[in-house]
Amino acid sequence: MSAHLGSWISPLADGQLDPAATEAALAHVAVCPRCARELEEARAARAALLRARDVAPAPDLADRLLALSASIPPADDDPLRRPGRFTGWETPDAWRPTLTGDLEERRRGALARRLVAAGAGGVGVLGLTLFALGQAPVVTPDASRTAALALLSHAGDDGSTAWVGEAAGAPGVSAAEDAEAWLSEHGWVAPADLPEGYGIAAVRVVGDEPGAVELDLEGPEGTVVVREQVGRLPGASTAAEAADVEVLSRDPWHVAWQAGDVTVDVVGDVPDDVLADVVAAFPGRGYDAGVLPRISRGWATVTGAIWRP
Q1: What residues have CB less than 8 Å from 98, skipping those under 6 apart?
Q2: CA–CA dist 268, 279 (Å, integer)
């Protein structure tokens, strides 16, 4: 218990405390003038409430109220309180064809309005659908050293992944020119100017759906594996003309950046200058999340699903 009863005053006055608590509280009241005064005031207030009685209305209250209502003047002669009356009549435009017998014109107009409304609604629904489909998935590359080594081990692998000629029905891409042409034709990012001595040795389509491809770049300083995936990096800039390169690992080198609608990550156990030249060979630009680009990507998704065998 604190120095004073405080919130115990009310339950003590109402007799709601158990015997032990009541005895302790009364012992405190006996030696504390402040708590004794508060307890006395609480008991006095409750006694006053018990003595209170309902206030009976005066016997003539109803008569006085009726007399007061009768003294209020009527609103018939008051221009400010009298409701206005409509004295004219004007035929609504929608009723004119019916009243004149021209029902065919009315039907044609209603049909035209319904067709326009249905067409506008259909275009709106189509636009919203394409806008929703155009949102590219978020691609988060694994920044661990194990993931970088696993991707680097894919070089020259034709088991778990399929060669382009077998998976996509395209002609063989053993030549660098054919590989670059195939990448550009299918919407992937093709290197523009690789370092001296480096070239595209293989292109693989990862999985059954063409959602990712891997490129093997071979040269005198070692092998570099490039993976491209449809999507956007977390927090990819939509305003920058050139995308920022994110370093995921240094042993081996593993970097990633945004190239339009495609994310590119490169793994290679090569010198720094060779890696920089490889990255510079691939164009990079920010992901465009605008309305028209999203609708365009949604339309490409729909047409791709329709024409895919």
Answers
A1: 106
A2: 11
Question: Which ranges of the chain would DSSP assign to H, the alpha helix?
Answer: 9-14, 19-31, 33-51, 61-70, 96-100, 103-133, 145-152, 164-167, 176-185, 272-281, 291-307
What is the rounded (10 degree) CA torsion for 170, 172, 176, 181?
-20
Are residues 206 and 214 in contact, defined by beta-carbon separation less than 8 angstroms?
yes
Mind listing the pLDDT tens digit for each residue in 107-166?
A: 666 666 777 766 666 655 555 554 444 456 777 888 888 888 888 888 876 644 444 444
- Taking alpha carbons only, the member of 258, 160, 165 closest to residue 206 is 160
Instruction: Evaluate whether 177 touches 197 at the Cβ level (below 8 Å).
Output: no
Write down the residue that tokens 């339950």 correspond to: 11
Helix (H, G, I), strand (E, B) or coil at 299: helix
The Cα–Cα gap between 8 and 71 comes to: 56
Residue 283 · residue 188 · CB < 8 Å: no
Would you mind telling me the total number of residues written for the chain in this entry?
309
The amino acid sitting at 254 is: H
Give dist(CA 284, CA 119) in Å, integer.
Answer: 40
- DSSP category for residue 232: B
How many other C-beta atoms lie within 10 A of the C-beta of residue 11?
16
Q: Which residue has the tokens 């990096």?
A: 233
| Contact (CB, 8 A) for 159 and 202 | no
Summarised one tens digit per residue, pLDDT across range 236-282 is: 544 444 557 888 888 888 988 888 778 889 999 889 888 889 888 88
